[in-house]
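Dear Dr. H.,

I hope your travels went smoothly. While you were away I took the liberty of generating a structure for the chain from your last submission, since the lab meeting agenda had it listed for discussion. I wanted you to have the full record in hand beforehand rather than looking at slides cold. The sequence, exactly as received, is reproduced here:
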Amino acid sequence: MDIVKEEESDIKLLFNRIKKRDFSGNEGTAVKNSIFQFSTTFIGKIGSLVLTIILARLLMPEIFGLYSLALSTILIFVAFSDLGIGDTLIRFVSRELGKRRIGKAKSYSEYLIRIKLFMMIVVSLALILFARLIAEGYYHKPLTLALIAGSLYVLFGGAVVILQAILQAHNLFKPILYRETLFQIIRIVIIPLVVLLSIKNYTTESLVAIIIVILSLSFAFSVLLLYLFTRKNIFKKEIAKKALSVKEKYEVKKFVLLNSTIILSGIFFGYIDIIMLGYFVTSEYIGYYQGAFSFINAAISLITFSGALLPVFSRLNREKMDIFVKKTIRVVSLISIASFLFILLAAKPLILIIFGSEYANSVNILRILSLLLLSIPITTIYSTYFISSGRPEIVSKSLIASTVILIILNYFLISVLLPYGPMYAVYGSAIATIISRYSYLFLLVILKKRN
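The corresponding predicted structure, in token form, is as follows:
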């Protein structure tokens, strides 16, 4: 009972800090950074949904499906260029800064930046080299130019990740929020204008490539902003470096390897359904699927904000953390159930109003995928719990197992249902996604009880 009262007292103190704008000390810094992260994520998700809706209406299902397929493929390559290097930089640099070992922190930064630049260049070149093979040999769709343009996305998007990691390691979250806001405004304004001016003058392949280029250039603008800020606030300081030992470099590589497992499993888990559908069905059906999934993804993001402050309590003892997690799950579950029922019942008017009558085939897909509203928010809380508790390997193993289930089920259900029509194949992929996501949640729940 004392633990519950103490936890409630902590929560009241947290909200009092926010109300009074008291961000002094380590706890105040953690609260302030969480607010900035919350705001950044919120703006990013809303901006992505708005852009998706605009593009879906302008491009219609066929071209929108090609765009979604190209972007999903590019994001998988981006994951290979990342491998959790940004998270690794935050961990090691912030640790050294906390111990006031500025020279060592600078050495970690430069070492990880070199690794990141190398991976970005290698992956970018690989995407250029394999673009035609992927587009024509696997998808059998006109995506070669878009995938080649994706090499710019890999470079500029990767630069944003590493610059933001440097800022986060130095507890500078405000410029990241500004960057995200400007990034969303630029692409929401410019991309639709370019599409309207180009849609009648260019081929489908060229149009999708142009969109990817504009997205990449939006990241380039972000790189410029972040670089100017880091140069002014971080890089301007002349500090002598302290060379990393062989042991320290080994620790970095080990952490990158562990993180890369989570990153790669997560990205495949999120996009393998689109990738596999790209092989079996024509692009308009991918557009139907992506339209429904983007709506669900945005709704999930809003629900999971309920647990946005969970990392703030990661320093609490195990017993108090367990109590807080249970309370968070109860609150999030109520919101999830209400959201699920709303989307299940209102799927048709939502699709027709937001995406237009051309996406009427997305209605049943949305109804199937609405089940994700009951699982993913809870899954996010459990995975955050394990990571905050210093046990990311549990998340990694569960993700790998669930990804394998997803791939097997996708192939089986799409193959079995495709003879009945491409829409049935899409339904099969949606069902595979549901089963694999619930499998992931089930694994995390079981492993938490055992640990």
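Two observations you may find useful: The two ends are 23 Å apart (CA to CA). Residues 98 and 404 are 40 Å apart (CA to CA).

With kind regards,
E. W.
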